[in-house]
Write a structure and sequence with these properties.
Blueprint (H helix, E strand, L loop, with lengths): L2 E5 L5 E5 L4 H10 L6 E5 L5 H12 L3 E4 L5 E4 L7 E2 L1 H4 L9 H8 L1 E5 L12 H9 L3 E5 L2 E5 L7 E3 L5 H11 L5 E5 L5 H12 L3 E3 L5 E5 L7 E4 L4 H13 L3 E5 L7 H9 L3 E4 L3 E5 L10 E2 L11 H9 L4 E5 L8 H8 L3 E5 L2 E5 L8 E3 L3 H11 L5 E5 L2 H4 L5 H7 L3 E5 L2
Parallel strand pairs: 2-15, 3-14, 6-7, 10-11, 18-19, 22-23
Antiparallel strand pairs: 1-23, 1-24, 3-5, 4-5, 7-9, 8-9, 11-13, 12-13, 15-17, 16-17, 19-21, 20-21
Helix pairs in contact: 1-2, 1-7, 4-6, 5-6, 6-7, 8-10, 8-12, 10-12, 11-12
The structure holds ligand EPZ.
Ligand EPZ binds next to helix 1, helix 5, helix 6 and helix 12.
Length: 419
């Protein structure tokens, strides 16, 4: 099992081009199943989760080609299987995103229940209920969702709580359904908008994506498209926090600053100087110790839960007291135990982490438990005294492209030990 070794105490300073967004690539790859022709995708990040999704699509008969510029060509005209097996779904929950496309284009789907993960139970009841409201016949047996529908019908779907992939699954099911679908209390994440833009580029009729009410008018078929995935706002935010904790400075390129408004406001509150342009963000911490900032996670455009662990790490060494409230997932403080082993002064009270900033933390052998917790541990290790060894970093490889290479080029003392 690979490990990362990080010697703390080195300021990050440099430039970085942000990769394509994992959480846009995954639904868009699933959405390629909807097209009767080939689709060409650009800016796809080289991540384990993307590789898993491509393996899943190929297992169904989708032809997958990468060209010399790493552009991806997908052709789902000869699909011969409508099943997402457990051995793939258990490693990547977002596989549930093939359910809507398979059902609405082929009238059938057999998708393993994703099961929970380190951060929570992660049920998919909203996905199932929404598809049933559109006329799907769904049974859950032996850990699989079995779905059938001669032709899905448009419906009014009102989510009882915001769900990103729930919104995406229903939106994809609706593009080939008969009639109009209105999704209320829809997720407003940029990755929902990116998926809608991709689907519309293939001939779908989706309006108001990005608002809490999305309207989809069903069409008969979708066609060829050439589409570029949007930049990864969470990868960008992660490197901004990594730079801030070390007192350094960074210029992020090929990023969408307005997707990071809530994160940038918190970084400025922590003492960072942040400037933005059309497609770049400059952060300069001017060698200062961060100031503690209170965090409460919300659906977009609120503060993103996927940046919570990173700010726990920042607050660990900040001056003052802070509270970090996690309102989206029921168990997303796995990183706290590991931060405490590095000397953090954190107390968990329900869904709140109460953090008293300490001057220094020390290196320790720690273990990654989930994707963003891993990012939090790396950020802490960048300022810990000594060499921190992070185990089970397959979690980090799921969502961060070449992380040790990018941090090394920014000045971090980091290496990967293959084990
Ligand atoms: C997406 O997960 C992201 N994953 C997550 O990113 C992100 O943390 C999350 O949205 C919240 O922003 C992808 O886009 C692939 P939800 P998703 O449905 O869609 C409950 C990362 O680190 N819920 O918005 O699975 C659910 O339990 C990952 O990149 C139900 O109860 O999250 C949670 O408490 C981690 N029933 C809340 O809603 C359902 O049917 C929000 O979950 C669906 C969700």
């Amino acid at each position: 099992m690979d490990k990362l070794k990080i010697v703390g105490g080195h300021q990050l300073d440099g430039k970085l081009t942000v990769s394509g967004a994992k959480n846009a690539a995954l639904p868009i790859l699933a959405g390629s199943l909807l097209s009767s022709e080939s689709v060409n995708l650009q800016n796809i990040p080289q991540l384990n989760d993307v590789a898993t999704m491509l393996t899943l699509l190929q297992s169904m008969g989708v032809k997958v080609l990468f060209d010399e510029k790493m552009n991806l060509q997908l052709d789902s005209s000869d699909i011969d299987s409508y099943c997402a097996p457990y051995d793939l779904v258990k490693t990547m929950r977002a596989s549930i995103l093939v359910l809507g496309p398979l059902l609405t284009r082929f009238g059938q789907a057999k998708v393993s229940l994703p099961g929970g993960c380190a951060i929570g139970a992660r049920p998919v009841n909203f996905h199932v209920q929404g598809l049933e409201a559109m006329g799907a016949k769904i049974s859950v047996e032996n850990g699989y969702i079995n779905a059938r529908a001669d032709k899905l019908c448009g419906a009014n779907i009102d989510f009882s709580r915001v769900s990103v992939t729930g919104t995406q699954n229903i939106m994809m099911a609706a593009v080939l359904a008969r009639g109009k679908t209105v999704i209320k209390n829809a997720a407003r994440e940029p990755e929902v908008i990116d998926l809608a833009n991709f689907l519309n580029s293939m001939g779908a009729k989706i309006t108001d994506a990005g608002s809490d009410q999305i309207i989809i008018k069903g069409v008969d078929k979708l066609n060829h498209s050439k589409y570029k995935i949007l930049p990864d706002r969470i990868e960008a935010g992660t490197y901004l926090v990594a730079t801030a904790i070390t007192g350094g400075k960074i210029r992020l390129k090929e990023v969408v600053p307005e997707h990071l408004t809530a994160v940038i406001l918190k970084l400025e509150e922590a003492g960072a100087i942040v400037d933005v342009g059309d497609d770049w963000i400059n952060l300069d911490m001017k060698a200062k110790r961060p100031v503690s900032v209170n965090i409460e996670t919300f659906p977009y455009p609120g503060f993103p839960t996927d940046m919570q662990a990173q700010f726990c790490a920042l607050n660990t060494v900040a001056s003052g007291f802070s509270s970090v409230k996690e309102t989206i997932f029921e168990n997303r403080f796995q990183h706290v135990n590991e931060l405490q082993r590095m000397g953090a002064d954190i107390e968990i009270q329900g869904n709140n982490a109460m953090i008293k900033g300490v001057e220094t933390i020390t290196a320790a052998p720690v273990m990654a438990t989930d994707l963003r917790a891993s990012a939090g541990l790396i950020i802490a290790a960048l300022v810990a005294q000594g060499e921190t060894v992070i185990d089970r970093i397959y979690h980090i490889d799921r969502g961060y492209e070449r992380i040790e290479e990018k941090l090394h080029q920014l000045g971090a003392h980091i290496s990967r030990e293959s084990g």
